[in-house]
Amino acid sequence: MNRAWGLLVLGSILEIFWVMGLKHADDALTWTGTIIAIVLSFGLLIKATSKLPIGTAYAVFTGLGTTGTVLLEMLVFGEPFQLVKIILILVLLAGVIGLKLVTGSTNQEGSAS
């Protein structure tokens, strides 16, 4: 299951790049990179959901992607810093960490109980 969490985190990191690519891509090379990041990101999400609950995996995927996108926009692209955004990101991260902590190992369909 740890491998599945690793794939999910890697997919979330790629999500940050393709979301920013949608906003900042302006030539064929950056659009190609954005499309590759989309495909890889969702491929990793799909792979992770073979071991993790879909709802939890998707919530973590989007939560980490959103957090990374907002932070990178502020740090790299000059988006205005707002304390409210940071507080809301911390709340979002608390939810993501909470989902990770309460997601135990479950029996896969068809396995012996």
**Helix content range of the residues, please?**
over 70%
Largest sheet: none
State the order of secondary-structure elements, H for helix, E for strand.
HHHH
Number of strands: 0
Which segments are poorly predicted (pLDDT under 50) over 5 or more consecutive residues?
A: 107-113
Q: What is the first-to-last residue Cα distance?
A: 18 Å
Entry summary:
The protein has 113 residues and is mainly alpha-helical. The protein has helices at 2-24, 28-48, 54-76, 83-102.
Question: Would you spell out the secondary-structure blueprint of this structure?
Answer:
Blueprint: H1 2-24, H2 28-48, H3 54-76, H4 83-102
Helix pairs in contact: 1-2, 1-3, 3-4
Structure description:
- By secondary structure, the chain is an all-alpha fold.
- It has one domain (about 1-100).
- It has helices spanning about 1-25, 30-50, 55-75, 85-100.
- The longest helix is centred in the N-terminal third of the chain and has 23 residues, at about 1-25.
List keywords for this structure.
113 residues; mainly alpha; 77% helix; 0% strand; flat
